[in-house]
Design a protein that fits this description.
The complex is a heterodimer of chains A (595) and B (89). With 595 residues, chain A is an alpha/beta fold. In chain A, 35% of the residues lie in helices and 22% in strands. In chain A, helix 8 packs across helix 9. The relative contact order of chain A is 0.08. Helices cover 61% and strands 0% of the residues of chain B. Chain B is globular, with a radius of gyration of 12 Å. By secondary structure, chain B is mainly α. Chain B has one domain: Non-ribosomal Peptide Synthetase Peptidyl Carrier Protein, Chain A, CATH 1.10.1200. Chain B contains four helices and no strands. The chains are: A alpha/beta (595), B mainly alpha (89).
């Protein structure tokens, strides 16, 4: 702590400089100005400090590794990053940027999910990968299976003490240089790599810093995976701009003992910490009186809640559970963002209770207007904050492209320097998503988010109501229903292609995924014998492949799955029929027995 | 002192709450993956068992003992081992 206080003045002095430099340039300045100051601490599964990285050591390692990387290949080549939670990832990521390579952060693939990973490597034409010595052999083995590209591997953790390379003492990087590809948007069969530039990163970090009033004293604690935009941008890059001290832990540490996260916020006097809605729900579920006896959450000023639907019930439960430990009202800060905008779009102002509106769901759906109501037919939506003042957010009619007014429903469009450059190797999709124009407002490009919502007339906040296309958002991850349906169909030979609709039953507080499966005559005949086995196979396959539970598996009679004339499954229609109780499932006997 | 059935019921209730699968579908000898319990919920389950029964468990326990009956048995065994030291129950 003492060296931290001693370096506070030096860290503060770089506030203005940091706002305009590429992130590697900021680290160079900070390493020179306050080398001994701690940048990251990493906690193990018990919440004990396992590893530390100072600004000075981080920069030395980044420079050394950049030299190794640059000795081979060309600028602009894509390099995959496969790292377990820990402090080797950020060094490898920044070394790629410094060596003008394009980083591609990826999840460590299991044998079962290798397919998605291979498609991404093929999509971006990746021939090199960085990892740790402990992971290398296993990854080589898994990824060289059928269809895998030839990869040149390098374990970087064993190079920690390599000498710095004079070439990269402070190499300036042009603003529009492509920095990394974020592969969280596409489906398994059609991966989409969002192209994020150095300029995008700096812009988005500055937007967050200014919107939330952060500086070198704003300590943070994060557990999000670094291959996810929130974990990377917020957890690992924002600290470099701020010059603060950040505590990291693995996602598994958090899920197994979520209170370690809260305890770390208390011990390290964190100002900023957050996650998707489920993280707060999990803390409440796992809290037991008497635990966290010495915990003091009063330093926590901003509890971000983003990347998933924000639920009012969760906000209430979390506040009432943790208020006795010093969690102040007005700390919870719902926010909105997406990889296509680098990360952050809206959130704040800091210190105000989240805005809630009870709106007439029917008027919103049929007339596209937002009308406040009470009681029956009301749907509560939570304000996801004010847009950053560096961007323009428009609500647009997705069919006509006409701009809509406040308290009117439409697609959320974003314009500004934070918008990514496009999707890797997909020029048509990039034009459609990143270069949309509002009718009557030529010359200005907007990025289409695909999210439907409105801007509040009274408060200017962004409210999210749903998605244009079917997309399942589970614990902050995007899942494409067609991927889940494919897995359902593949789980048993009796389930035929194009016979399944997967959707979210969002009526209750708890999210429930439903799979409706249309039986053909063969399946209908086999069903009395096979129903239990089929349900179990479906659930097992979906959880293994996608990590989510199908709460309800419904079998319906032949030729009752609704499809368009072109044969596409009509998910939203099936969902409406399910919710109105108008499906007639085969074999409802078991349900009646239990009731 | 906990009984096997008590631990098994607690595991069943956890599965119902986290996955939304109806309770009548959860059977003692079925693989927990069949209820859609993913790897994240498996880690959540291990941590929750640790909290509830006051024992230390390996994060991979659910993969080694993947049914309600097996998992309840191994937790019961650990509780028995833990008792002489602390006396949690």
């Amino acid at each position: 702590m003492s060296e931290r206080l001693l370096t506070d003045a030096a860290a503060a002095a770089l506030y203005d400089t940091a706002a305009a430099l590429p992130v590697t340039g900021i680290l160079a300045r900070r390493a020179a100005a306050h080398p001994a100051r701690v940048l990251f601490r990493f906690l193990d599964e018990q919440g004990r400090e396992e590893d530390v990285l100072s600004y000075g050591v981080a920069w030395a390692r980044v420079r050394a590794l950049a030299g190794v990387i640059a000795a081979q290949g060309d600028e602009g080549e894509r390099i995959a990053l496969f790292y377990p939670a820990g402090l080797d990832f950020i060094v490898a990521f920044l070394a790629c940027l410094l060596a003008r390579r394009v980083a591609v952060p990826l999840n460590l693939p299991s044998r079962r999910r290798v397919d998605r990973c291979q498609r991404i490597l093929n999509d971006c034409g990746c021939a090199r990968a960085l990892t740790t010595a402990a992971q290398e052999a296993g990854l080589r083995d898994i990824l060289s299976a059928d269809g895998g590209p030839a990869i040149d591997w390098l374990a970087t953790d064993v190079l920690r003490d390599a000498g710095p390379d004079g070439r990269f003492d402070d190499a300036p990087v042009a603003g529009d240089t492509l920095a990394f590809l974020q592969y969280t948007s596409g489906s398994t069969s059609h991966p989409k790599g969002v192209m994020v530039s150095q300029h995008n990163i700096t812009t988005n970090l500055r937007m967050m810093r200014n919107a939330w009033g952060l500086d070198h004293t704003s300590n943070t604690v994060f557990w999000q995976p670094h291959h996810h935009d929130m974990g990377l941008i917020l957890g690992q890059l924002l600290p470099v701009m701020l010059g603060n001290e950040t505590v990291l832990m693995g996602p598994n540490t958090f899920v197994r003992q979520p209170l370690i996260w809260l305890d770390a916020i208390s011990r390290y006097r964190a100002v900023l910490a957050g996650g998707p809605n489920f993280a707060y729900e999990l803390c409440v579920q796992r809290y037991m009186a008497g635990k966290l006896a010495d915990c003091d959450l009063s330093s926590w000023r901003i509890a971000l809640n983003g990347a998933d639907v924000v639920r009012g019930g969760t906000l209430d439960r979390f506040s009432s559970t943790f208020a006795p430990l010093g969690f102040a009202s007005g700390t919870m800060l719902p926010c909105y963002g997406l990889a296509e905008a680098t990360l952050f779009v809206s959130g704040g102002p800091v210190g105000q209770a989240p805005r809630r509106r009870a709106i007439d769901a029917r008027v919103a759906e049929t007339q596209g207007r937002i009308v406040d109501v009470e009681g029956e037919g009301a749907r509560t939506v939570i304000g996801c904050g004010l847009p950053s003042d560096e961007i323009d957010v428009a609500i647009v009619d997705p069919q006509s492209g006409v701009r809509r007014g406040h308290d009117e429903l439409g697609e959320i469009w974003v314009s500004g320097d934070t918008n990514a450059l496009g999707y890797w190797n997909l020029p048509q999709a990039s034009d459609a998503t990143f270069r949309a124009q509002i009718a009557g407002e030529p010359g200005r490009h907007f990025m289409r988010t695909g999210d439907v919502g409105f801007v509040g007339a009274a408060d200017g906040q962004i409210y999210i109501c749903g998605r244009l296309k079917d997309l399942l958002i589970v614990d902050g991850r995007n899942l494409h229903p067609e991927d889940v349906e494919y897995t359902v169909v593949e789980s048993h030979p009796l389930i035929k292609p194009q016979s399944c609709a997967v959707f979210e039953d969002d009526r209750g507080e708890q999210r429930r995924l439903v799979a409706v499966i249309e039986a053909d005559r063969e399946l209908k005949r086999a069903l009395p014998e096979m129903e239990k086995t089929l349900r179990q196979q479906v659930r097992r396959a979906v959880s293994e492949e996608h990590g989510v539970a199908i709460a309800e598996v419904v079998f319906i009679p032949p030729a009752t799955l609704r499809k368009t004339t072109s044969g596409k499954v009509q998910r939203s229609l099936m969902k409406a029929l399910f919710q109105q109780g108008e499906l007639q499932p085969l074999r409802p006997a078991a349900v009646l027995d239990a009731a | 002192m906990f009984k096997h059935q008590e631990i098994a019921d607690w595991i069943t209730a956890f599965i119902v709450e986290r996955t939304g699968v109806p309770e009548y579908e959860v059977e003692p000898d079925e693989n927990l993956g069949s209820y859609g319990l993913g790897s994240m919920q498996a880690v959540d389950l291990v941590g929750s068992l640790e909290d509830r029964f006051g024992v230390a468990l390996a994060p991979t326990l659910v993969f080694q003992f993947p049914t309600v009956r097996e998992l309840a048995a191994v937790v019961l065994q650990r509780v028995g081992q833990a008792l002489p030291v602390g006396g949690e129950a």
